[in-house]
Amino acid sequence: PLPADAAALASLRTAIGARPLFLAASTHPGEDAHVVAAHRAVSAAFPALLTVVVPRHPERGPAIAAEAAAAGLTVARRAAGDQPGPGTELYVADTLGELGLFYRLAGAALVGGSLVPHGGQNPLEPARLGCPILFGPHMWNFEEPVARLLAARGAVALDSPAALAPAIGDVLSDPGRARALAEAAAAVADGNAGLPGQAAEALLGLLPPYAPAETPAEGRRAGQGTNEG
Known about the structure:
Rossmann fold; alpha/beta; 10 helices; single chain
């Protein structure tokens, strides 16, 4: 599972409280406008909604914040030292190595790169952290785990960006469904836990038997013994 600093996680839990949280994880250019539009639609039913955007490239943080502010949202940026306050509607987590924090906090998460023809990020990361998963139509680069997640009913596949807001609302409004999604996804991820060992065993089976190499000193001693005989 992605790591998370315990103190930072506790601080964010305190700042966020009981607010519903939607996470757009590892977003790429072109996706943020869809996320902002989805927030505006979903917040009609969930006025306390906090949307967190974690851009794949943190340097895009100021531009994302400006785009959201231009759409009328109250914005804070983590790279600027901000915490999400009670009035924050969209929180840009434009830092490195902290995605594990937000997967642990989210009530639903969009796998970034999947709403645009880029290719999505790894869907097993939220699966390992018990986070309900949403992804768009562009997940060709993770075809096999996506197929297993969908077969297990451990993720929601969106056929277009327009489907994002309804999917967020459905998951946030139904705790039982959110829990079922998270549990099914975790079971799929757990099924992969032994793959590194299996791969190592398969590779070792292709190698010749291990034979320790002689050191130069051992070689010299062996030669000396032959000459003396």
